[in-house]
Amino acid sequence: MKIVLVSAVALIDPDGRVLLAQRPEGKSMAGLWEFPGGKIEPNETPETALVRELYEELGIETWESCLAPLTFASHSYDDFHLIMPLFACRKWDGVPMPREGQSLKWVSASRLRDYPMPPADVPLIPVLRDWL
To answer: Per DSSP, which regions of the chain are E strands?
Structure first.
């Protein structure tokens, strides 16, 4: 089975809300909400991938030193197995803007379950909620 490495982040605003991004039409699992991030390229660390993805997807800049490892997902889908570290980040420059057709929403930890997510993301919610 193919292993896919993805890095994701819980961006946390000063009010303790978490940024979710909705997968746009035309992508697999379109309409589901997820933590921002993306595939880790060859020779990239999960942190380097996140810094790059956050700039590409949201137009914000952050630094590896601002990414705190929180938990990870290991989930088998039908045609691949996903390994996804989740980092927490409270410091960045810029205002997150949807640059890839996705919708964005700041969500309080207690409301995260109200948003349908890919199966790999769901087990991350209680860990994040407890941490916040």
So the answer is: 3-11, 18-22, 33-34, 37-39, 68-76, 81-89, 103-107
- State which H helix or E strand residue 48 sits in: helix 46-58
Per-residue model confidence as pLDDT tens digits over 50-62: 999 999 999 999 9
60 in Cβ contact with 96 (< 8 Å): yes
Q: Looking at residue 127, what DSSP letter applies? A: H
78: left (phi over 0), alpha (psi -120 to 50) or beta: alpha
Please tell me the predicted confidence (pLDDT) of residue 93.
98
Q: Residue-wise over 50-62: b if at least 16 C-beta within 10 A, else e?
A: bbebbeebbebeb
Tokens linked to 87:
């980092």
pLDDT in tens, 86-104: 999 999 999 999 999 899 9
